[in-house]
Amino acid sequence: MKTIKKSVFGKLKSGEEVLEFELINKNNIKVKVLNYGGIIREIITPGKDGKFENIVLGFDTISEYEEQSPYFGCIVGRSAGRISKGRFEIDGQEYRLAQNNGVNNLHGGNKGFDKAIWDTKNLIDEDSVSLVLNYLSVDGEEGFPGNLKTQVTYTLTDQNEFEIKFSGVSDKKTLINLTNHTYFNLSGNLKDNILNHKLTLKADNVIYVDDQTIPTGVIADVKGGVFDFTEEKKIGEDINKQEEQLLNCGGYDHPWVFNKSKIAQIKLEDEKSGRGMEISTDQPVVVIYASNQMGDELILSGGRESERNLGVCLETQDYPDAINQPSFPCKVYESGEVYTACTKYKFFNC
């Protein structure tokens, strides 16, 4: 029976209580979400053997999320990805942001949306359950202009779809580029890394990045190269090739530009577990990060030791650092103009 369960997950250093919400559909698929950072802590789906297991990376305690999380499962904002040199201009006025990734701004700054406590509301409909999260990012927070009212809705349907809807409106001209930073691993309870996962992308072009993972402005054709996933290919097939773009990031940490498509733009499958996932979005870009920088320094849910390439992030979003890239489409939102974005994940057995 579909339902939403609420429990106390723990307390932050500040003493603030963190809640966990468990969304369950009629097929017993479960999504566990924290009101801290809107973090997706677990997604429980069946493999081909019928066994229900977790398919995302996360921690067992709130202190680990607060102190050492590499953005596991969280809402990223105000602006996903890196903003070059932590600065941008709107109408001739320069805004300086936190430089929390070398000289650059990453994922909104030192205290982005991933570290906020969000207000929550539960909704149960005829064939779905939803958790609605709201957060007010005040004018000047982490250097961004405008009071930004933000809403994120997580919906789990009885058709085994999980939908994330973003919306926001500011009282000043501002940047908004939101995403979710879940690390997926379809093997089930992190039994294997993701190098044998098969990935398909409706994307003929990739954006090149420099050695700080800042877009260079070059949008390149992927055909026949290491970034070509237009036909099904294992993530690990080319990831360790000695090519400059891969060496810049230690593997995949790049934005792909979607073709115009009315069908799912992304498919991820793990043949061994029999789990698959299709992703459709109204966003133009997906940043794919194959956890290249992850080592064995973390203890994950269930006591699993972390390792390189243990998860893959599929961050649907607008063009990263577009405000500083003359060749990219760039959207600056006017006062009162509504930002929206939507991404759907369809779980299946292959």
Automatic annotation (TrEMBL):
Reactions the enzyme catalyzes: alpha-D-glucose = beta-D-glucose
EC main group: isomerase
EC number, UniProt record: 5.1.3.3
CDD domains: galactose_mutarotase_like
Pfam families in UniProt: Aldose_epim
Annotated pathway: Carbohydrate metabolism; hexose metabolism
Active site: H181 (proton donor), E315 (proton acceptor)
Positions of beta-D-galactose binding: H181, T182, Y183, D253
A GO-annotated cellular component: cytoplasm
Record GO biological process: galactose catabolic process via UDP-galactose, Leloir pathway; glucose metabolic process
Family of the protein in this entry: Belongs to the aldose epimerase family.
Protein name per its UniProtKB record: Aldose 1-epimerase
